[in-house]
From TrEMBL:
It comes from Frigoriglobus tundricola. InterPro entries: TPR-like_helical_dom_sf. This is Uncharacterized protein. It comes from the Bacteria.
Length: 358
């Protein structure tokens, strides 16, 4: 990371820069650009009222560093080239050559494409920590939604589940109509479950329902609860089933409040229907026949037009009599594999990193 001059700035510039740093910390590069540009403009204005000497040049350098931090590398370079290094304070003068070298790199035509290629190679080599370090150093090579999405996937790979959920929340907040984006939240928890990492899957699912309350995350949590119930002692099974049912009821409630475009998305319908089916089955197995049958009927109604590789039965006249056969016929593992394979972030990440241009 390039060294910046450690010099006190005016109060207004300091505040704007601090707000830019805070925005960058949560991946809000739009606000970071705005606040660092504001800090740079304040310092430029202060510079212009100085008549000359080291103070004027120092203010010019400080303004250039703020534009740099905000991703306006061209403006940073233009200012830096006007600095008279001879009159800079000695403790700052030595930083200018490396700064000029770095802004020259970042204004070169192949800069964005090169960094994206580096990120793509690191992703293919399964090096999430190194990828996050590159993004921290070069946060403006991806559009804001893509940056948050890629960070979410990388944090999930590192088992930093709360950070992953926060980045997913950031991405979804910026692109609320992107159904494919929210569906990718299901991939890693389901994959963890398939790898017998149930405790981690549950930890991630809990972070998701807290920070990304959505039918998809509620269904994911309900699926994980189902597996917790299946592996629990008899005395704990009812508790886990109650959690599963509570999550699927939340999913159903929130699902009905989505706009019709999202409700009718084939993958959304299929996933919510799957969660309902699973909860209905567990209800029947636990002896809660009435509620189990109600949830089953909701699943059948919702799943009738869902696009997935299994055919829903048109109706369930008496699911309590056929529940064991239904469970076997579902091939639960295969269906979960279908979802985390279909919702994997891999294709989207490749697409984001292969597109040249910020």
């Amino acid at each position: 990371m390039i060294k910046m001059p450690l010099v006190n700035m005016s109060g207004a510039a300091t505040l704007a820069a601090a707000e830019g740093l805070a925005a960058l910390g949560v991946g809000d590069t739009v606000r970071a650009r705005q606040k660092y540009a504001e800090a740079g403009a304040i310092l430029e204005a202060e510079m212009k009222v100085r008549h000359g000497g080291g103070e004027k040049q120092l203010l010019r350098f400080l303004a250039a560093t703020q534009y740099y931090k905000g991703g306006d590398y061209q403006k940073a370079q233009d200012l830096a080239h006007k600095i008279d290094a001879r009159v800079l304070p000695k403790n700052v003068r030595g930083l200018l050559p490396q700064f000029l070298k770095d802004v020259k790199l970042r204004t070169s035509p192949g800069y964005v494409a090169g960094i994206r290629q580096t990120l793509l190679k690191l992703w293919q080599q399964k090096q999430p920590a190194e990828s996050l370090a590159v993004l921290q150093e070069h946060p403006y090579v991806l559009p804001p939604v893509s940056l948050a999405f890629v960070r979410a996937a990388l944090c999930g790979e590192l088992a930093n589940f709360r950070a992953a959920a926060l980045f997913f929340a950031n991405a979804i907040r910026q692109a609320p109509d992107d159904v494919g984006l929210v569906l990718t939240t299901a991939a890693q928890p389901l994959l963890l479950r398939s790898q017998d990492r149930l405790a981690e899957a549950w930890e991630y699912a809990q972070c998701q329902v807290e920070l990304v309350p959505h039918p998809v995350t509620f269904v994911t949590a309900s699926i994980i609860c189902y597996h917790r119930a299946c592996t629990a002692h008899a005395e704990d099974r009812k508790t886990h089933f109650a959690e599963q049912l509570a999550f699927v009821e939340k999913a159903w409630d929130v699902y009905q409040k989505l706009d019709l475009m999202q409700q009718n998305h084939p993958d959304m319908r299929a996933y919510v229907a799957f969660g309902l089916e699973l909860a209905g089955t567990m209800g029947l197995r636990q002896g809660n026949k009435q509620r189990g049958k109600e949830v089953w009927e909701q699943a059948v109604k919702l799943g009738a037009n869902a696009s997935h590789p299994w055919k829903q039965r048109a109706s369930v006249a008496d699911p309590s009599e056929e529940v064991s056969q239904a469970v076997e016929a579902w091939n639960l593992s295969e269906r979960e594999t279908h979802f985390f394979t279909r919702f994997t972030p891999e294709p989207s990440i490749r697409q984001q990193l292969e597109v040249v241009g910020a």
